[in-house]
Design goal:
Blueprint (H helix, E strand, L loop, with lengths): L1 E10 L2 E11 L4 E5 L6 H8 L7 E6 L2 E2 L4 H5 L2 E4 L11 H12 L6 H7 L15 H12 L6 E5 L7 H16 L3 E5 L3 H7 L2 E6 L2 E7 H7 L3 E7 L4 H8 L4 E7 L2 E6 L2 H12 L6 E8 L2 H11 L4
Parallel strand pairs: 3-8, 3-9, 6-7, 7-8
Antiparallel strand pairs: 1-2, 1-4, 4-5, 9-10, 11-13, 11-14, 12-13
Length: 304
């Protein structure tokens, strides 16, 4: 559905995108994950035709994006992270206004408002909307051209917990309708729930592109979570010197150990903890999550 090959974008001397490549399959949810400034929004703005790129090639639906931009953008819907509106209008007026421009039937506006849970607020001025309500209104706008591809830039960042759940359920429902979704998010639990494929970008480079099932099989390794009675700082320095420990994440009296060899670690960990000058309160082994993988990858900034 979308193929990006060696895409580059510079802002003066700053390299925003450093020859990135990835593919998005039709009808899938593609999770595009990275820190602020990693290149997520730049990539989305390029793929939606809002800004130019310097080098590389983009194909959408098997067609060259530059040569067929006008045609291809008609099949794209885009929810920006910070949408803007005419604040003196209400939601119904705004959707009607946009509909008149693009040829959308007025009779369908009520369905859109119901879908994004804004029916009760449709006569309220947009200027009085919360950020989450504005995001939902922007989502309604993104659906007005019945898109085959939907770009969502941090769609749940301004929503309350109930709104986040509704957004995730909406995304899951779109998968059933075979709409291709390009999802940029920093809420990794959300990405893990709805995405079929994960792409991690950092400092303009793609570090990893794998299906969620591949990640679970290959990269999600067990983690030792240990809580101490007192600050274990001195002991932590000893752990960091051990060759079979990859890294140590500290959080007050708690630590999380990422190990290179889980079987060896199970044999040795209790022996090492007995050398600490403080007592162990709790000890458990858990499966690592997408967030754990993300933190490891951006910490190393290595392509895998």
């Amino acid at each position: 559905m979308i193929e990006v090959v060696n895409l580059k974008k510079n802002y003066g001397r700053f390299e925003a995108l450093k020859s990135i490549s990835f593919e998005v399959e039709k009808g899938s949810v593609f999770g595009f994950i990275g820190r602020n400034g990693a290149g997520k929004t730049t990539t989305m703005n390029i793929l939606t035709g809002l800004i130019r790129f310097d080098e590389g090639k983009i194909s959408i639906k098997g067609k060259d994006f530059l040569k067929n931009k006008r045609e291809l953008t008609k099949s794209i819907g885009y929810l920006p992270e910070t949408p803007t509106f005419y604040n003196y209008m209400n939601a119904y007026e705004y959707l009607k206004f946009i509909g008149e421009i693009i040829g959308y039937e007025v009779k369908n506006i009520s369905k859109l408002l119901e879908m994004v849970k804004l029916t009760k607020q449709k006569k309220k001025r947009i200027g009085a909307y919360s950020r989450g309500m504005k995001q939902r209104l922007a989502l309604a706008v993104a659906f007005m051209n019945s898109p085959e591809i939907l770009f969502l830039d941090e769609p749940a960042s301004a929503l309350d917990p109930e709104g986040r759940v509704e957004m995730l359920e909406l995304i899951e429902g779109l998968k059933d309708e075979k709409i291709t979704i390009f999802l940029s998010t920093h809420i990794l639990n959300d990405a893990e729930r709805v995405c079929d494929r994960i792409c991690i970008i950092d400092e303009g480079k793609i570090l990893l592109t794998k299906s969620l099932s591949e990640l679970h099989k290959t990269y999600i390794q067990p983690i030792f979570d240990i809580e101490f009675e007192e600050d274990p700082k001195d002991g932590i320095n000893l752990l960091k010197k051990l060759k079979w420990i990859e890294s140590v994440k500290e959080n007050g009296h708690k630590i999380s150990l990422y190990v290179k060899d889980i079987d060896y670690a199970k044999k040795e960990i209790l022996k090492e903890l007995s050398k600490f000058n403080t007592n162990v309160i709790s000890y458990q082994i858990r499966k690592s999550t997408l967030e754990d993988i993300f933190m490891r990858m951006i910490g190393k900034n290595e392509v895998i």
